[in-house]
Amino acid sequence: MTLPPGPDLPAITQTWLWFRKPREFLRDCRERYGDIFTADFRGFGKCVMVSHPPTIKQIFTGDPNVLHAGKAAQTLGPLLGDYSLLLLDGREHVRQRRLMLPSFHGERMREYGSQMLEITERVVAAWPTSGETISLHPHTQEITLDVILRTVFGVDGDEEVLELRDRLRSVLDTGDNPLMSLLFFLQYRPDLGPFTPWAKFYRRLQVADDLIYAQIARRRRELDPSRPDVLTMLLQARDESGGAMGDVELRDELMTLLVAGHETTATSLCWTVERILATPRVYRRIQTELGDVLGGGLLEPSHLTRLEYLDASIKEALRLRPILPMVGRVLQQPMTIHGHEIPAGVAVMPNIYLTHREPDLYPEPDEFRPERFVDKRPDPYEFLPFGGGVRRCLGMAFALYEMRAVLATVFSRVELELAEPAPVDMVRRGITFVPKGGVRVGVKRLRRVVDEHLEGSRAPSPP
């Protein structure tokens, strides 16, 4: 067995570098060892990083019974639960994915579009009008959390939304605590009494779980098959033997959709706005496209598929600022990868961050150029912000559609400018890369949004 070369530093040192300076660590390894190298992380062991598209294809298209993705995601187990789609492998993963897939079919996006636009308009309507500066991240978090609660959980009462939102935020904000982020990464969960970080996390999680289970129970009693939300579809889903999801399965999948579809999308929206505002020619072209598509009218869900340059800008931002730096597969038996015989138990990891910066794939890779994705279908082994193969993110179409809806609303309602030098620094939040300070922008109102419009009339706003 011959692992690819890599740093000869102790595992604890590599872990510290990965945790504190991940971009620098990855770039230095890529420069020293090429497009496949071995890192050694405390809590994970040996990890083979790959940024070579043919090898990534081999991993993504390989036998899922040999390449286990669920084992590589066990860090999230305490939050997501044992039945989370992200943590399952083999038959269990296939069953759960088949049950969930119809909820995210592309045609369903139009049913969610109006809610996405209205939620964004409500948030934007509360922004300052006198050129004040705001941090964008809390606002995109509010938008994406409300979208998840209404389109996935099916929560429709304002008080119910507020209560569940507050409880879920208290759990998700665990990522703001550097100690908890490190403990999650190391998979080290000591129980040292009621006032330790883990004890507080589990108490908050229990309160949130109680609300989620209450929502599931109520929806079972009052099942309305005509409702368009994801929970309704999951309650009705049946596997090949006629079996349905139990309450624990439903809870774990709802939490998975929340974690995978809320914080990641909120952060991607911030990065996309930051890159667009830092590139004036791109910002002007997006404004022109919006003007041409809307024709002076009100933004509607039907417009979103016509915003091709905005869509290309989103993809380019995801290339430059992927939320997750890599995805993993743990080998269940030895496998030859890129000329190396990798032993069982080692994680092979397509590295999203490095692949997206390969100059042979993306000339001048640090430049923000949406034109790379105009009239071009990205190669799935060169562009992988949502992972790939049978484990590609189930909510990819949902996330991309939501980002178009939110950004189109924001850019058609307000004029923005960066209130800090570009590029904004990238920092770690849990397992994700987020913008330091949340992207601070100056806001200037373009249009006023009237109450009856926000209530769903979709009537044009008065000047």
User: First CA to last CA: what distance?
Assistant: 71 Å
- Sheet with most strands: 5 strands, mixed
Q: Which strands sit side by side, in order, in the main sheet?
A: 1-2-8-5-3
Question: Which percent band covers the strand fraction?
Answer: 5-15%
Topology:
Elements (H helix, E strand, L loop, with lengths): L10 H10 L1 H12 L2 E6 L3 E6 L2 H8 L6 E2 L8 H4 L9 H11 L8 H17 L7 E3 H16 L6 H15 L5 H9 L10 H25 L8 H7 L10 H31 L2 H15 L13 H13 L8 E3 L3 E3 L2 E3 L4 E4 L1 H4 L40 H18 E5 L7 E4 L2 E4 L4 E6 L5 H7 L6
Parallel strand pairs: 2-8
Antiparallel strand pairs: 1-2, 3-5, 4-12, 5-8, 6-7, 9-12, 10-11
Helix pairs in contact: 1-2, 6-7, 6-16, 6-17, 7-12, 8-10, 10-12, 12-14, 12-16, 13-14
How would you characterize the overall build of this protein?
The protein is of the alpha+beta class. Helix content is 48%, strand content 11%. It is built from 17 helices and 12 strands. It has helices at residues 11-20, 22-33, 53-60, 77-80, 90-100, 109-125, 136-151, 158-172, 178-186, 197-221, 230-236, 247-277, 280-294, 308-320, 352-355, 396-413, 451-457, and strands spanning 36-41, 45-50, 67-68, 133-135, 329-331, 335-337, 340-342, 347-350, 414-418, 426-429, 432-435, 440-445. Strands 1-2-8-5-3 form a 5-stranded mixed sheet. The chain has a 3-stranded antiparallel sheet with strand order 4-12-9. Strands 6-7 form a two-stranded antiparallel sheet. The longest helix is centred in the middle third of the chain and has 31 residues, at 247-277. The chain starts with 10 loop residues before the first helix and ends in a 6-residue tail after the last helix. Mean pLDDT is 87; it is low at 449-463.
